[in-house]
Amino acid sequence: MAAQPFDQRDGYIWMDGKLIPWREANVHVLTHGLHYGSSVFEGERAYGGEIFKCTEHSERLKRSATMLDFEIPFSVAEIDAAKRLVLEKNGQRDAYLRPVAWRGSEMMGVSAQNNTIHLAIATWEWPSYFDPEQRLKGIRLDMAEYRRPDPKTAPCHSKAAGLYMICTISKHAAERKGYADALMLDWQGRVAECTGANVFFIKDGIVHTPIADCFLDGITRRTVIDLAKRRGFEVQERRIMPDELAGMNECFITGTAAEVTPVSEIGPYTFQPGNMTKVLMEDYMAEVQPKSKAA
Predict the structure, then answer these.
(1) Residues 62 and 44: beta-carbon distance below 8 Å
(2) Looking at residues 117-131, what average pLDDT do you find?
(3) What is the pLDDT of residue 293?
(4) Where in the chain is the domain with CATH 3.30.470.10?
(5) Considering 159, 177, 229, 291, which one is annotated as catalytic?
(6) Which member of 50, 171, 207, 277 lies 3.0 to 4.6 Å from 290 by CB, making a disulfide possible if both were Cys?
(7) What is the CATH number that goes with domain 132-290?
(8) Which CATH number is 12-124 given?
(9) What is the location of CATH 3.20.10.10 in the chain?
(10) 294: pLDDT strictly greater than 60
């Protein structure tokens, strides 16, 4: 059965300060964000009615907008409250949240300094990003053709819509070949990230992950690094070259949608999801639960 289209669902979306029926949350075809990529967004999850690291996500949304030279006309506290309101109005406790901000349609051209800045927040039920059975075995990744750009060429630390164009292309290419996702290198040929998730490797009991200087330093990434250190695992954030993958024992990816997902294959390299990955998966799922339940 085909998934229900996102423009044909029931419920409510918060848009520019008020709740409106889901199907009425529309923008004009000449919206600047559609034509020129002047849009930023967040991906968040609620577990048991509580949004994990809600404020941290709202703060990053505001920072992302600033990097794209616009100011979201709502405070972090107002954005937090709006997210909780739409989650409650939609009657959801375990859900995905998508705040998105964009330049409107007053001016149509590269320069649009006087355009209205809009903000919308939608929530929906979304289970694991990958097939649950396959996820436990480890997903398979292709090697992406496109690379993450030099940070001097794009606002790489913003969660900007335009930066995901090459991610969509790369994920489509991987899926056509039977893979779940693709690993992207950076502009210098070093391991960077997947199309929508950060990547970690384990070798001889040490956790390795690329330095996030030309791609998004994910909130889930930072959470997992903290969890690993709490466990006493050594974590090395460093440059990783593709040929090093042959010597890695375990691999997993992290992200709000992916959570912590083991990897069994990246192109010609294979990995065996092991105990350290399993421990970090379990620790992460315990961390995101409301503390009253996790206690």
Answers:
(1) no
(2) 85
(3) 47
(4) 12-124
(5) 159
(6) 50
(7) 3.20.10.10
(8) 3.30.470.10
(9) 132-290
(10) no
